[in-house]
Amino acid sequence: MTSEGSALGYPFLKALKGVVKILAILAISYLAIYLLNALLGDGVDYRNLPILGSRNLIWLVAQVHLLLGAFLLGVPMFAVTVELIGWKKGDGRFDRLAHDFTRLFTLTGTIAAILGGILLVSLFILYPGFSGYMRSIYSPTWHLYIGLVLGEVISMYLYYYSWKALEGRKGMHILLGIILNLFGIAIVFVTDIWVAFMMTPGGVDEKGNLVSMWDAINTYAWMPLNIHRLIANVAFGGSIAAAYGAYRFLSAGDDERRAYYDWMGYIGNFIAMVGLIPLPFAGYLLAMEIYAFNEQMGISMMGGTFSWLWFMQAVIIGAIFLAANYYLWTAMEKIEGAERYRGYRKYLLLVIVVCYGVWLTPHSLVATVEEARALGGAFHPVLGVFGVMAAKITAVFFLIMATFLSFMLYRRSDKRPTVSWAGKGNLLQVLLLILSAGAIIFLGVYGYFVPAAVRIRMSMAQVVIVFIFMVLFLIIEYFLYRNAEAVGRIRWGDMPGRSQYALIFLAITFTWLMGLMGYIRSGIRKFWHIYGVMPDRSPQAYLPAHGVSTFIISIAILIFFLLISLVFWMAREGRH
Amino acid sequence: MWWIGALLLSLVVAVVAALRRSPLFTAIGLFFLFFSFLRSLSLIIPPIPAFVLRWYLLLAGVALLLYFSIREETFERFKAPLIALLVEREMRFLRVPVFLLFPLAMAYMAYAYTKPALSPPAESRTIHPEPPVEFSFRGKRIKVLGLENPLRKDRANLARYIAEGKEIYYRNCVFCHGDLWDGKGIFAHGFNPAPLPFRGTDTIAQLPEGYVFWRVSTGGPGLPPNATPWSSAMPVWQDMLSEKEIWKVILYIYDATGNKPRTWE
Known about the structure:
Chain A is mainly alpha-helical. Chain A is built from 20 helices and 5 strands. Chain A has helices at residues 9-40, 54-89, 92-126, 128-161, 170-199, 213-217, 222-251, 255-276, 279-293, 295-302, 307-332, 339-342, 344-360, 369-375, 383-387, 389-412, 422-446, 452-480, 497-523, 546-573; strands spanning 366-367, 415-416, 485-486, 528-530, 534-535.
């Protein structure tokens, strides 16, 4: 990047260009809406898009736009964290990593903005009734949103292009990155207002007239959705970063690059895992709020129509855990000193596979008539035991703990503690593990014998135990490995290709999971635009068969990855 | 019974291969060991439905592949026989049949998959579909959510209600739901889907009483569209029993099985 001068004027010029770009896209969209409305004639509530269908278009565009948006918000979180670590540690690699990532934003931002424009136009042209109503309620928040997007764009360009200029004033630059993230978070909060309102509306009377703006903003699902999306963005940003690292690793020509991109994949995967672990709890919170808003909605989400999508969710989540662990296990191969811990991997694998099996055993079985006959009932006497919530939750906690342990083994591989109480400390950790694993199994088994309401409290206790286990373990680990001596080095770059494909797999499945879960969240509205307030009266006011919806979601994911590959590729070209 | 034989054979393959340090054949042996183990389980418990079996096998296959590919050396040895089969001259006598076998196996699979079958296809059933917001009970609209058993509050007469419920059960329900509340009444074998048990933790134990009331009142025909396959034999009891009688029999089935209705808090 030779054009990247060290003067501060240059970043501002770039930021101005970004603002002009966004305003131009917005102006074109408004113009398109105006022209199309004039052309097609006013006064209808729905227009149908031939062939593809209005709903499918909105679905695809919204999903891809959302994924790009999530990427745009997740990556700065990732970049600033990494930059901060680099600054504190004085490790130049981190700074380079953060900078490499920021390169991806500007291009992604443009694509996301164009898709946003298409979404805006298609909503107002294809669903004029609904969009008009949303505008009548939310036009103040819409203007706020535009303001925030401009703020995001400005801080994004300033952050990226002032990297060199602010080299000497790192604190200042990081502050800029934090401002960028604040804008990002605010954007999530504002857009969630609209989505949450559609699911769990508030602040309007039966006719849909606005009664209280604050109640229309602070709906049941709003905060849980915010939290869920923010955490998911961390995981998403990390996993895409890891996939990028993997892609660059696989196409790297020399050892120096391989080492660097190997390390990049590792950091990305680490951040993705840190985000992934609290995600189930945030999801739980969201589900609880949906129940609190409308029990009917909660039941249809968990029990009825969507139960097969939850099965797919289970398959995908298990695969994510498996891939993440596999990556760590193969990565241990490149660490001198890891021989001491290699033997444990097979036990971890066993625990993970068994838990995965329990986790994906469906409660309602697909069975042929003969099989059903042989069962003699609806539930299999053994598999039925795995199918219930108590078993599944227990299995997930074990998945989390096993992943945590894999990571701990990885961390230890190249070190040996020097403290005098090393043996005892280790024993304490093992005891801690046995105790908490025992307690979790006990609570899980006990969960079979108590009513559902009590069982929920039981799983809360399990959450607390897992959490305490991890915290105590880490505290001991910290003191144990302070001033530890190195027993070998990490041969960065000495990784088999398969480990990198695991990272790419991780990013794709994670994105897929987001699409699937997002569909459930949105699908529980059924034939309502705004649940209980505004029914969908278009010809597509029904839930498609699961096969159809998963197909559309997959197409959206495919488009997203094509776009992201384009960004990766262009970022790579830009280097030379 | 031949699963036992398969079990032993794959055990032998796995052990011999492990001793000779051949990861590929160890994996194959372990895979079939697991497969025949799952199948031979049907000697003691009802067979695992093919749908679940397939997922377990897939999981086992993936796990083995992952396990043998963690270490580079192991993975090299894992691949070696396959590569040898493909490229080495001495292997050509094996290569030809294998290459022939593959398309033949594929053809057979395609044939087996498309050949018309006598048995109906596997069905997924949502056993506890979401209830409607409200339903009609002899012309009266009743809301399902928050619906409580009015008799349960009348503690003084609870024992009498349960006794009356028992009588209702033995006059009406026992033929399908069974003497032991296990869904194995004398008619049960004739129905698909089979009558549900009331014992255990996964039927009425996880339902609120209002839900059970809705199910008993509207029966199989009252099931919502997503509760396929719509062929439930459960009768519409509101045509035959009064509201109070249904509440009584519900009291009874909970009492008899020691289950408690689900409450939300």
